[in-house]
Every structure is written in C-alpha cells, then in structure tokens.
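User: I'm curious what two different proteins look like when written out as structure tokens. Can you demonstrate?

Assistant: Sure. I'll show them one after the other, since each token string lines up with its own sequence. Here's the first protein:
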Amino acid sequence: MVCKSNEFRQDTEKYLKLRKRLGIDRGQFIIFSPDLGEEQAVALSNMYELTFADRERLTAHLRSLL
C-alpha cells in the first residue's frame, strides 16, 4: 500500500509500472490518499489498473480482502 498526502498523479504511471513489475494484483496495490473524495477514488480506480482509496473506501476494501 502506498500512502500519499500530497499530489500523487504525476507518480501514477510509476506506481502502475511498479505494480506490474512486482506482479501484484490491482486490488492489492492500494494508493491511499485521505484528500481524495470517494467519487475521485472510484474514477481513478476505473481509469488506472490500481486501487485508489479514501478513508471510507480503504476500510471497506481491506475488509473485502480478508
């Protein structure tokens, strides 16, 4: 999981390449940003092969993995 409190979008491609290089499933490579709104997190998750999460979405996502 990557935690970002600042702007992270310039690094999105770097995280995508890292996830693919490590062979991690997109659902298990989570970018947590408390500054994201839920709609933004959903939109970014749909746009990239990564999982973006705000506070509420992170809890629900982690529960679904267990």
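Here's a second, unrelated protein for contrast:
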Amino acid sequence: MEKIDLKKQYSRLYNTPLGKNILVRVPAFNFLMINGQGDPNTSPDYKEAVEALYSVSYALKFQSKKESPDYTVMPLEGLWYGASEQVFLTGDKDNWQWTMMIMQPPFIEAGMVEQAKAAAAKKKPLTALPRLRFESFEEGLAAQVMYVGPYSEEHDTIMKLHQFIGEQGYSLRGYHHEIYLNDPRKTTPARLKTIIRQPAG
C-alpha cells in the first residue's frame, strides 16, 4: 500500500509557489500542539516542545502502522503572537508566545495519542509532554507565500503578504502562521523553505 503524504494531498496548502502571494481556504485539521513562550533560538522551553511533538508524532506513526496505512510525518508548524505587537516590532523575542504543532492524519484518534505519549515517555524524559494536546484547528480563508531564506529576514515578505490581503479587500485576523519545510539543523539558512500564512477576513 502506498504511503500517505498529506503534503501532496494538500499541495496547494503545503507547496505554495515561491514568492507568490495566494489566497487559500484552510479546512479543519487535527494537530498535536504545545503552547509556550520565549526566543526559539535560545529557549529550552521551545526546544523541549519541538522534541515532544516529534517524539509523539513518530510514536503515533509506528503505532498506527499495525491497523492503518503508513504515512509521512508532517512538518513542524508554528503560530506566533504576543501580548502586543510591540514584542515583534522591537524584536523582544523572550516575550514571543507560540503554539508549535504537527498535523496528524484523519484516522488518528485521542486514545491513540495517549498511547503514543506513554510510549514516547518510556523512551526518554520529555519535559513538555504534559502540555501536549490533540485538537482540531481551522483557519478558513488565509493568504500565504513560500519564503526561502533565513528566518530573521522574513519581515519584508510578511509585510508584502499583509499588503496583499488589504488589496484583496480583507483584513488581518488570527495568528501569524509559519510552516517549516526543512530541518534548520541540517539546512543552511539561505536554503530554508518556510510557508508564511496569515488568516484573512
């Protein structure tokens, strides 16, 4: 049986043309999620959250192979927000708030997640595991663009995306959303691919 790849099934959402702002409609998907705060470059909280998300995602993948089709683990995604816009305008990364998450196939259920959490915890201590949750998330209408380059240089691309939303007759809503298509530990900053998404309404 062919392995399920949700990135291919939802290619318009996960393979946006490079540098082209487009409107998309994002349906409800199920995610593993962890909330936190702090600079993603230095915060132990961020590192622990990402480790827990991947550990449980891979535990789910191997666990579900016994009864369900095999599938490719989806990329890491992040919702970014703050108590005010000032934390972003001033680069106050220590006060950035985030929800890191990984989308799951539709046949994954809450009971399976609890089993996978227990299996992951047996392999190694995961500090963020108690904060991990499984829930549905729907963005609806959004604008997005594929950006290639260092995370630190996204600003101009984000501003152009916001401008595009206004030109289409919409306003910004919801949280700034990023989808990380590469592993930053193995990819040079200049080659990092990130889908930048902003809900519109």
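A detail about the second structure: The chain is about 30% helix and 25% strand.
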